[in-house]
């Protein structure tokens, strides 16, 4: 994106953030809680593999909702169904329903990347900042309170009852704020998310997170079609002049 | 409400706040901006009467939507239609469309009562705090950014496309957070709002604002049916043990 001389005219008013992987480290957080659970319950589990397997069911579970094979189901409930499958696959037995419910809510307790809290605090001085996640409203609210993410409002795919990459999700903010889509920028660590956002007219900022999938898995290189590529949220603030 | 020994079991998890009159001083703020506009444009207007007349059209305009006489229309648009009528009634001519749009957005720039910002900051340490207003999402977000209201999330009647006192509005938070209605408390300066909330199972906190309608208009006395009555948000925090 060209940084203009008079930035207010062309800068986005609203920044929407993908959350899992972009704002928070889902993999490291699940490993951390899994290991604690394993120690308490004497479980012999590879929690990194467990985290990857659980996350691996994320897209297929939402796709079933998107194709209409199951009625609207929020992410907490999809995660809970997937968790039962993963526990069985990893041979984990003997957890109480309460322990499983608590483990399922680890998605409400994910830790932010180190730049996320200060970066959002800086970006919100000039922009409206909101998550735009497939996570449900309660999940995103609880996560923000625990982690100190100073969102101006919580936007979730749940509010339009479909999941990204359905276009209704990306256009929700422009609709609510009565703005053209180009005044809204999607920020994500995932090129697919950005490409779907761009198709609806949103601007795009790519923030690759080299540790999202663990050591040794490199993010996709920047695509010149993205308006901005930044190293983290503080670099994004710098590049947007915030 | 009895304050229990182990408060977490019976205290509400979510506090929902009526906004116009309860959190912010709509009347004083409109008078302030109206007087500035009047000085700039040489207008001879009684801005207190103007504010009351504009607010007087609030309930009837929403009732037309609630009865289905007009399709869903958000509050910014209802305010804008009412503004045209009030300007005509007060004989104000010669404002540009841009000036009228700006004046209409005074509802995004209302000043909080003095206890609102510190009271919410304190209450949010123990509770999820959110507006539940007939104001639209953009209005509530812009107001919060300007005034420093530290909401955890923005809830608005707009998200369910009906207006308070329709029950869907009061039940939105319990639905999103998968909680029974008694874990949600409505906080308002208006007994009617609280009675409608209580009918859906919410708990109620009455915070009368003696200056809402100007000097000399006394709020209704507390009703013993309300769970809590507080002098302001700091007193509410005290009474909830926050």
Give the helices and strands, then pairings.
Two copies of one chain form a homodimer.
Chain A: H1 7-10, E1 14-17, E2 24-25, H2 26-41, H3 47-56, H4 58-66, H5 75-89, H6 97-104, E3 111-112, H7 116-123, E4 128-133, H8 137-147, E5 155-156, H9 167-177, E6 184-188, H10 191-199, E7 203-206, E8 228-229, H11 233-239
Parallel strand pairs in A: 1-4, 1-6, 4-5, 6-7, 7-8
Antiparallel strand pairs in A: 2-3
Helix pairs in contact in A: 2-3, 7-11
User: Number of DSSP helices of chain A?
Assistant: 11
The name CATH uses for the topology of the largest domain in chain A is Rossmann fold
Largest interface (C-beta under 8 Å): A-B, 19 and 19 residues
CATH class of the largest domain in chain A: Alpha Beta
Strand order of the largest sheet of chain A: 5-4-1-6-7-8
Category from helices, strands and their pairing of chain A: alpha/beta
User: Helix coverage percent of residues of chain A?
Assistant: 40-55%
> What is the helix/strand order of chain A?
HEEHHHHHEHEHEHEHEEH
Average predicted confidence as pLDDT of chain A: 95
Radius of gyration of chain A: 18 Å
- Total domain count of chain A: 2
Q: In what range is the share of β-strand residues of chain A?
A: 5-15%
Low-confidence stretches of chain A: 1-7
Give the overall form of chain A.
globular
Distance separating the two termini of chain A: 14 Å
Q: State the total count of DSSP E strands of chain A.
A: 8
The CATH architecture designation of the largest domain in chain A is 3-Layer(aba) Sandwich
Oligomer: homodimer
The CATH homologous superfamily of the largest domain in chain A: HAD superfamily/HAD-like
Query: How can the largest sheet of chain A be summarized?
Result: 6 strands, parallel
């Amino acid at each position: 994106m060209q940084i203009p001389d008079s930035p207010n005219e062309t800068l986005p008013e609203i920044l929407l953030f993908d959350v899992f992987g972009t704002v928070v480290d889902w993999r490291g957080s699940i490993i951390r809680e899994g290991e604690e659970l394993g120690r308490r319950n004497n479980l012999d589990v590879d929690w990194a593999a467990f985290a990857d397997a659980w996350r691996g069911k994320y897209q297929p579970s939402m796709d079933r909702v998107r194709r209409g094979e199951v009625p609207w189901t929020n992410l907490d409930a999809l995660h809970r169904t997937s968790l039962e499958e993963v526990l069985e696959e990893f041979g984990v037995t003997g957890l109480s329903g309460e322990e499983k419910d608590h483990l399922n809510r680890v998605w409400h307790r994910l830790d932010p990347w180190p730049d996320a809290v200060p970066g959002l605090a800086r970006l919100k001085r000039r922009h409206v900042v909101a998550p735009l996640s497939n996570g449900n409203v309660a999940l995103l609210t609880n996560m923000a309170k625990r982690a100190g993410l100073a969102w101006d409002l919580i936007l979730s795919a749940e509010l339009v009852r479909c999941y990204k990459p359905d276009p209704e999700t990306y256009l929700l903010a422009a609709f609510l704020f009565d703005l053209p889509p180009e005044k809204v920028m999607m920020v994500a660590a995932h090129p697919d998310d950005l490409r779907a956002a761009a198709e609806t007219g949103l601007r795009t900022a790519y923030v690759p997170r080299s540790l999202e999938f663990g050591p040794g898995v490199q993010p996709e290189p920047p695509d010149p079609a993205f308006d901005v590529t930044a190293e983290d949220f503080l670099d994004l603030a710098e590049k947007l002049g915030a």
